[in-house]
Amino acid sequence: MNASPEPRAPAVSVIMPVLNEERHLRNSVRHILEQEYAGALEVVIALGPSTDRTDEIAAELVRETASNSWGRVHTVPNPTGRTPAALNAAIKASRHPVVVRVDGHGMLSPDYIATAVRLLKETGAQNVGGIMHAEGENDWERAVAAAMTSKVGVGNAAFHTGGAAGPAETVYLGVFRREALEQQGGYNEEFIRAQDWELNFRIREAGGLIWFSPELKVSYRPRPSMRALAKQYKDYGRWRHVVARYHEGSINLRYLAPPTALTAVAAGFVAGAAGLSAGVPALAWGFAVPAGYLAAIVAGSVPAGRGLPLAARLRIPVALATMHMSWGWGFLTSPRALARKVIASRRPAVVTPA
After folding, report:
1. What 3-state DSSP class applies to 351?
2. Which of 5, 71, 147, 253 is the most buried (most CB within 10 A)?
3. Which positions ≥6 away from 179 have C-beta within 8 Å?
4. What are phi and psi for residue 98, nearest 5 degrees?
5. For 12-129+155-223, which CATH superfamily applies?
6. Where are the domains of the chain?
7. What residues does 108 pair with on adjacent strands?
């Protein structure tokens, strides 16, 4: 008796929100089209209002893959430039049962899609994801990558630092069953940041499983300057506070560490300065708090920087402080109006296949 044929691998839609990604877009798409996967692929790029050559590169990719029956590139407009709007536009324009999110500066490992599809089947999860493997191309980016993959930098977040496979609150990017996205109405477009966490929270609240696996890895290119990193982490903190207001009980101690550190360091500086100006030695001891924080991040940067050039190692404490203080500042100064705006429009955009 002949053996039953292997079931055909499900077709996959890869969605990409893109804005000013001329540096990495072509390479990112190449990592998708070169996947070791037996099923059909489509790549849907949602184009924001870029000011560089991103649109031109995307148009080239569309032309170059027009005759490729296995994996083709399509584009859709995203005039708002906002990530969740881009994701919803790309989902709506896509058509396959498995939806993979990739950013324009993310590089998939060769078996990423095949492994993710297998994990969806094995675990019954609605969304699976893995490690955000930060890799830099110069000394500053290498320092940021080291900070982003160390526990002193990001706590115990498995998708940054690794860990055992299992259920998770959220994962990096994500590989979804389309029906999970349809059930939730896609991404909430009010969440300019933290839209992944917020969507995964809703999926879990509806009884769905989010699954983390270290088998999945996406190479990530860090922000190229301290200013860009500070803005990124300020936005992370700001919008994570919005999630906490919108979904009660969603906060944990890891998210409170940066605002606590910022408050303590600022209070220490104020007390120390007041003590010096008023001649009160006891208050001058307030400087011990920022000094202790500085000592902690310098000590934490030593194991994080193993194997890196000296110039990169010296920048790790700067990257750590930028991440912590910016995240904390964003969290503490997050306007309540943002939360009220989201609550006033709780119903996310409805997503239907094209």
Report:
1. coil
2. 147
3. 97
4. -115, 130
5. Spore Coat Polysaccharide Biosynthesis Protein SpsA; Chain A (3.90.550.10)
6. 12-129+155-223
7. 218
**DSSP code string of 224-235:** SSHHHHHHHHHH
| Tokens representing residue 102 in the block | 């990739």
Helix (H, G, I), strand (E, B) or coil at 74: strand
Question: What are the residue ranges of helices labelled H in the chain?
Answer: 25-33, 54-64, 83-93, 112-123, 139-148, 151-154, 158-161, 178-184, 195-205, 226-246, 253-278, 281-284, 288-304, 310-332, 336-344
Q: Which of 138, 129, 193, 115 shows the shortest CA–CA distance to 162?
A: 129
Looking at residue 192, what is its pLDDT?
83
pLDDT tens profile 7-60: 579 999 999 999 999 989 999 999 999 999 999 999 999 999 999 999 999 999
d(CA 73, CA 62): 5
Closest of 321, 117, 147 to residue 220, by C-alpha: 147
Q: Is 331 exposed, middle or buried (0-12, 13-18, 19+ CB in 10 A)?
A: buried
CA-nearest of 210, 25, 208, 38 to 106 is: 25
Q: pTM of this prediction?
A: 0.78
Q: Which tokens go with 322? A: 């930028």
pLDDT digits (tens, 9 = 90+) for 125-138: 999 999 888 888 89
